[in-house]
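Q: Please design a sequence for this.
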């Protein structure tokens, strides 16, 4: 007699799409991946810094701009393509050194392309893409202040944004070498610069490239000088959520494509070796040997 039942293989085949749908929507209790979250909401949220020149900052039109911000835009375009969502919307969220990691962890922000150091401690909380810049902690001081290195800081007031690796490095340095300076905390780079400009702090310690940016954006750039040897070299990288290999691969692939096509180097010259907003000042910061080496190694190795 001819059977009216479908073969078991067909039942299994019919069940597969339903199972995939459950997984994609997190219906089995799993947390949706970043791409699933973005696809479901129709929006990708990018975190930006308000004063991290030239990586991520507000331009004269009060909109985010910068080297890191443009790379974020490339990632956004890649996400649109991968998801097949030409209608995908970009949302923006200002982040600070204090909240940038929590906002990635809790899903408020999907990606942050700013001036965030990739180190082992942060790697326990978030993931990092391929390192896209290398820098070191130095000092911004008033021109003619007499401060030329960290050994000139005894009895001085040094400011650094709280929640940064620079603040920790300076605190440890003072303790280890008994340098005898007072370390003050600031909300961000703009506040730290204001403390030095007003004389309430003698030096501002953070990544040297950010100090060049702060100097370029100040009312009178010539009133400031960037001094001292770099205390330690650290890599910057794009920040994203942990345990999401598919999204990390997408971000890494975007960077690799930019590096191999020459687009990354063109973007670097635009932001570090050409006049930039808001004042048309050239940072004159050539690509470091560390960064050039990583354009070949394509490493996401943390600082420590």
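A: Design:
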């Amino acid at each position: 007699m001819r059977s009216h039942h479908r073969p078991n293989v067909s039942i299994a085949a019919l069940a597969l799409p339903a199972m995939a749908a459950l997984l994609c929507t997190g219906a089995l209790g799993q947390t949706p991946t970043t791409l699933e979250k973005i696809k479901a909401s129709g929006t990708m949220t990018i975190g930006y810094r308000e004063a991290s020149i030239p990586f991520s900052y507000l331009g004269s039109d009060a909109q985010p701009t910068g080297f890191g911000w443009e790379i974020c835009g490339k990632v956004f375009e890649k996400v649109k393509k991968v998801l097949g969502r030409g209608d995908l919307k970009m949302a923006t969220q200002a982040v600070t050194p204090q909240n940038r990691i929590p906002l990635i962890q809790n899903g408020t922000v999907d990606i942050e392309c700013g001036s965030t150091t990739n180190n082992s401690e942060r790697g326990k909380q978030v993931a990092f893409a391929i390192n896209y810049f290398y820098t070191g902690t130095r000092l911004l001081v008033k021109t003619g202040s007499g401060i030329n290195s960290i050994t000139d800081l005894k009895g001085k007031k040094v400011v650094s944004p709280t929640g940064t690796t620079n603040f920790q490095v300076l605190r440890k340095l003072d303790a280890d070498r008994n340098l005898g300076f007072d370390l003050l905390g600031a909300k961000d780079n703009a506040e730290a610069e204001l403390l030095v400009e007003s004389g309430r702090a003698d030096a501002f310690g953070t990544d040297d490239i950010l100090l060049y940016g702060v100097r370029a954006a100040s009312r009178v750039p010539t009133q400031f000088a960037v001094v001292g040897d770099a205390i330690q070299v650290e890599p910057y990288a794009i920040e994203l959520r942990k345990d999401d290999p598919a999204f990390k691969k997408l971000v890494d692939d975007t960077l690799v494509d930019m590096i191999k096509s020459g687009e990354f180097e063109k973007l670097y010259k635009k932001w570090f070796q050409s006049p930039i907003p808001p004042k048309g000042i050239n940072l004159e910061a050539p690509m470091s040997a560390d960064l050039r080496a990583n354009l070949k190694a394509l490493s996401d190795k943390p600082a420590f």
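Q: Thanks. Anything notable?
A: The two ends are 73 Å apart (CA to CA). The first strand starts at residue 43 and ends at 48.
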